[in-house]
Automatic annotation (TrEMBL), chain A:
UniProt name for this protein: Iron-regulated ABC transporter permease protein SufD
Record domain SUF system FeS cluster assembly SufBD core: where: 178-405
SUF system FeS cluster assembly SufBD N-terminal domain sequence ranges: 23-168
Gene Ontology process terms (BP): iron-sulfur cluster assembly
Pfam (any one): SufBD_N
Species this chain originates from: Thiothrix caldifontis
Family to which the UniProt record says this protein belongs: Belongs to the iron-sulfur cluster assembly SufBD family.
TrEMBL record, chain B:
Phylogenetic placement of the source organism: Bacteria, Pseudomonadati, Pseudomonadota, Gammaproteobacteria, Thiotrichales
SUPFAM superfamilies listed in its UniProt record: Stabilizer of iron transporter SufD
Transmembrane segments: none
Domain (SUF system FeS cluster assembly SufBD N-terminal): residue spans on this chain: 134-202
InterPro entries associated with the record: Fe-S_cluster_assembly_SufBD, SUF_FeS_clus_asmbl_SufB, SUF_FeS_clus_asmbl_SufBD_core, SUF_FeS_clus_asmbl_SufBD_sf, SufBD_N
NCBIfam families the record matches: PRK11814.1 (NF008773), sufB (TIGR01980)
Annotated ranges, domain SUF system FeS cluster assembly SufBD core: 211-453
Name used for this protein in its record: Iron-regulated ABC transporter membrane component SufB
A GO BP annotation: iron-sulfur cluster assembly
Family to which this protein belongs: Belongs to the iron-sulfur cluster assembly SufBD family.
Pfam family, one: SUFBD_core
């Protein structure tokens, strides 16, 4: 294995060895054991085929301890996307910071540090943790699960409709660079509960860290969750986050992930169903600029009848960047009446950008409607001509077309402040690249 | 639905129409594979020295390789030492010069398959180079072709008569060690077809080869090499059908196409090897490597395939679009029923400028059939204005079958345009209802809808094949839907 990773692994193996197993959830014990067994993913693994790991492994990322004085209430104020009095969870380098978080005491939502929630062996958190992430785990998810405890447990009780959006703010900041952050989130929406969960990965200093996050979401019967996520980490960061979602009958999930940051990023989505009639809406957008590498990995398992899903992903690539879209919809034999649509559209703005896309369908039931579509292309010269003929300068025309292209996904966030923030990021990044694309198009 | 079950039942027990074994004395080597077997094959075929070295090189590499497992197919492990690697009909040793010298037993076999060889001469435009087991036994219309300067013969003959051509092109598109099965083929291939079309010649007729697998427990390793020189055109038809038997049979063929400047090759296949019984027992394993190289500018290679047979199909006819403005096409209909499994598709490598490719793949799964499309479209950095359109549709008939799509799209050039579309559904109730309402029987309605579904591919087939393919599809899906 790799020397840099060995460093991290040996740390967690020691950690796992010293831990009191009796009190640990099964999933954590399994994951700790798996650290010895699981190989480092390589490009021979189908799901890592286009993911270059050297970007991660060339740095000796160190596990770090909590330094809570790094972050101030002003920083949170500056970064927040939800109203000041909204419930808010602040995570610093993967550690939950209750002092900076806003935890409502009206009983609408339960927010607990994960280690406190896991103390009770009969608790909801204890039985659920790792239930989803344990099934399709690779070395990195196992690493996160093995080092549980510093994350957060969020539960919205049955029938509760959260009036205000709940924000989870992940901040990475350090003066000593090259560290690994392992945020962990366990979210449970009980039957009939409704909530908006705004997730943001931000940075305050130009950190060089490896973010290895895992989010597990359980939607019980009839629950509804809107889940916009914005990832704008530092351009040196290596960002890996895995979302695991299980939906019960008639539940509704609407999620949008916008990836802007990170030198290397990989976002995984794993969805399955525990009841019929559920709907899942997954949207994603990635903007890959100079030397960035983005990956979106979608793995939706339709294991029960009458569920529907929509997966829409778009990407804009420029400079010397690469992006991967790897989507798989699996419809199992019993999942009749499934309706699933997968699409991936890409805009290549420069000569050196490369996109690898792999939208797969695996279907074992006959009464289904499934489709997937992919496109890769450059800016349509006719569109550009149309705009320029109307007196719009080239730069502005390019930006307008790109904004329109990305806008369709950004709008699915249905969360205004986040959309504004994303659009601003997009404009800022696009303004830098138009000179470059100018040469290509004319 | 009751009617459906009845049909399904009837179909499941319908025996394989082309299933019979011809009794012919064969010269077969004992099962097993080592260097001596390869030397034996090479010597038997009176091959030039370079061929033996080439084969041995492939064999040594093959020993280092492991069988691929990435395909979406499952089968018991193949014992390569239990296969006999050479079998030639006895009658071939005398080398029949005309139809009259061909073993009448053989001729009767072909008659059963509906290829009345006696009538071939009258059937204008089709020359048949038959491969019975592993040796060509009859070639017709040789003279006519020779007048046009076309070389159309068995590959072993080509090695003796035109060694320079063979040495120049053999293995240039599919290298000896390209993959596990291609390496095995390179080591042990017994025969196949060689075609050379000289510059500026439009081949006067459609060339056709019928393959038969016959001898029990004999692997069939064919090698086809087609070279279309500058500005030439050839259409090549390949059709397969095989007798019923119990043992699984391995078929690992290699087909190489080379199109030079302005040349066009059209390669059509109807594949109907024995698919095995309802549990998949006894069917053919069809592990084929087919690849075409558009070497020259403005060259054109087109693959059309109708795959209804074999227990397992593992086949990706591909195009390397190296010449500027070259065109690659892939049209496919793959049907799986019973316990058949197919993992098929194509690769389009765009290297040259303004290269275009089209992929149309139609998969039909019935009963417990598993049908996968696996395709790669690669736009290299230099593939300026490269263009690809891919359409793959799957039709599901029955609730135990599977249809899978695994497209890989790699684009490294911003001026390239790639589109991929795929849909999966069953036959629409509304479509069926519409047809039934107008007095069509359920069977006819299904057949009509399925034929419509495959139309885009069938229209690419040469006339004779299109008729055969439509009929084959009808027989294949008989009673699959109620």
């Amino acid at each position: 294995m790799n020397a840099a990773l060995d460093n991290i692994l040996s740390h967690y193996r020691r950690f796992a060895a010293s831990a009191d197993y009796a009190g640990l959830p099964d999933s954590q014990q399994t994951a700790a054991a798996a650290l010895h067994r699981l190989p480092l993913p390589t490009r021979r693994d189908e799901s890592w085929r286009y993911t270059p790991l050297p970007a991660v492994l060339e740095h000796p990322f160190q596990p770090i301890a909590l330094e809570d004085d790094l972050l101030t209430p002003d920083d949170v104020e500056q970064l927040r996307l939800t109203p000041a009095d909204s419930p808010r969870v602040v995570m610093l380098n993967g550690f939950f910071i209750p002092e900076l978080s806003t935890i409502p005491d009206d009983g609408s939502v339960e927010i607990l540090p994960l280690n406190a929630a896991l103390r009770d062996l009969s608790s909801d958190a204890f039985t659920r943790i790792g239930q989803l992430s344990g099934t399709r785990q690779h070395l990195f998810t196992a690493l996160n699960t093995a080092s549980l405890g510093e994350g957060v447990y969020v539960r919205v009780s049955a029938g509760t409709v959260l009036a205000k959006p709940l924000e989870v703010l992940h901040v990475s900041i350090s003066f000593e660079s090259e560290f690994i952050a392992q945020p962990r989130l366990l979210v449970v929406l009980e039957a009939g509960a409704q909530a908006t969960l705004v997730e943001q990965y931000a940075h305050l200093s130009d950190t060089l860290c490896l973010n290895n996050g895992v989010v597990e979401v359980f939607l019980e019967a009839g629950a509804q969750l809107s889940h916009p996520r914005l990832q704008h980490e530092s351009l040196r960061t290596r960002h890996l986050s895995s979302l695991y979602l299980r939906q019960a009958a008639e539940s509704h999930y609407q999620g949008t992930t916008l990836a802007f940051g990170g030198a290397w990023s990989r976002t995984e989505f794993h969805v399955d169903f525990s009841g019929t009639g559920a709907h899942c809406d997954l949207n994603g957008f990635y903007l890959a600029g100079d030397k960035q590498s983005h990956g979106m990995h979608v793995d939706v398992i339709h294991n029960l009848p009458n569920c529907t899903s929509r997966e829409r992903f778009k990407g804009i690539l420029y400079g010397n960047s690469t992006a991967v879209f790897d989507g798989n919809i699996l419809v199992q034999a019993d999942a009749q009446k499934t309706d699933a649509r997968l699409s991936n559209d890409n805009l290549l703005l420069s000569r050196d950008a490369e996109i690898n896309t792999k939208p797969r369908l695996e279907i074992y039931a006959d009464d289904v409607q499934c489709s997937h579509g992919t496109t890769v292309g450059q800016l349509d010269p006719e569109m550009l001509f149309y705009l320029r003929a109307r007196g719009i300068p080239h730069e502005q025309a390019v930006t307008m077309i790109c904004m329109g292209f990305a806008g369709a996904i950004i709008a699915t966030c249905e969360f205004e402040t986040l959309e504004q923030c994303a659009n601003a990021l997009l404009v800022k990044r696009l303004s830098k690249l138009v000179g470059l694309s100018h040469q290509n198009i004319d | 639905m009751e009617a459906a079950e009845r049909h399904l039942d009837a179909m499941n027990h319908a025996s394989y129409a082309a299933g019979f074994v011809t009794e012919i004395e064969a010269d077969t080597v004992a099962p097993g594979l080592d260097e001596s077997v390869i030397r034996h094959i090479s010597a038997k075929k009176h091959e030039p020295e370079f061929m033996l070295d080439w084969r041995l090189q492939a064999f040594r590499q093959w020993q280092q390789m492991s069988e691929p497992t990435w395909a979406h197919v499952h089968y018991p492990k193949i014992d390569y030492q239990a296969i006999s690697y050479y079998s030639a009909p006895k009658s071939a040793s005398d080398g029949p010069k005309s139809l009259d010298e061909v073993d009448p037993e053989l001729l009767r076999t072909y008659e059963k398959l509906g290829i009345p060889l006696q009538e071939q001469k009258m059937l204008a435009g089709v020359a048949v180079d038959m491969v019975f087991d592993s040796v060509s036994v009859a070639t017709t219309f040789r003279k006519q072709l020779a007048e046009a300067g076309v070389i159309f013969c068995s590959i072993s003959e080509a090695m003796r008569e035109h060694p320079a051509l063979v040495q120049m092109y053999l293995g240039t598109v599919v290298p000896q060690t390209d993959n596990y099965f291609a390496a095995l083929n390179a080591a042990v291939f017994t025969d196949g077809t060689f075609v050379y079309i000289p510059p500026g010649v439009r081949c006067p007729m459609e060339l056709s080869t019928y393959f038969r697998i016959n001898e029990r427990n004999t692997g069939q390793f064919e090698r086809t090499l087609i070279i279309a020189d500058k500005g030439s055109y050839v259409s090549y038809l390949e059709g397969c059908t095989a007798p019923q038997r119990d043992e699984n049979q391995l078929h690992a063929a290699v087909v190489e196409l080379i199109a030079l400047e302005d040349a066009e090759i059209k390669y059509s296949t109807v594949q109907n090897w024995y698919p095995g019984d309802e549990n998949g027992k006894g069917g053919i394993y069809n592990f084929v490597t087919k690849r075409g190289l558009c070497a020259g500018d403005r060259s054109h290679i087109s693959w059309t395939q109708v795959e209804t047979g074999s227990a397992i199909t593992w086949k990706y006819p591909s195009c390397i679009l190296k010449g500027d403005d070259s065109v690659g096409e892939f049209y496919s209909v793959a049907v799986t029923r019973g316990a058949q499994q197919a993992d098929t598709g194509t690769k389009m490598y765009h290297i040259g400028k303004n290269t275009r490719s089209t992929i149309v793949s139609k998969g039909i799964s019935a009963d417990r059939g598993q049908n996968a499309y696996r395709g790669l479209v690669r736009m290299n950095k230099g593939a300026e204005n490269g263009r690809n359109h891919t359409q793959c549709d799957s039709l599901l008939i029955g609730d135990k079958c599977g249809a899978h799509t695994f497209p890989y799209i790699e684009v490294a050039n911003p001026t390239a345009k790639v589109e991929h579309e795929a849909t999966t559904s069953k036959i629409g109730e509304d479509q069926l209802f519409y047809c039934r309402q107008r007095g069509l029987s359920q069977e006819d309605a299904v057949s009509m809808i399925v034929n419509g579904f495959c139309k885009e591919v069938f229209k690419e087939l040469p006339m004779e094949f299109a008729v055969e393919a439509r009929k084959l599809l009808e027989i294949s899906l008989e009673g699959a839907v109620g």
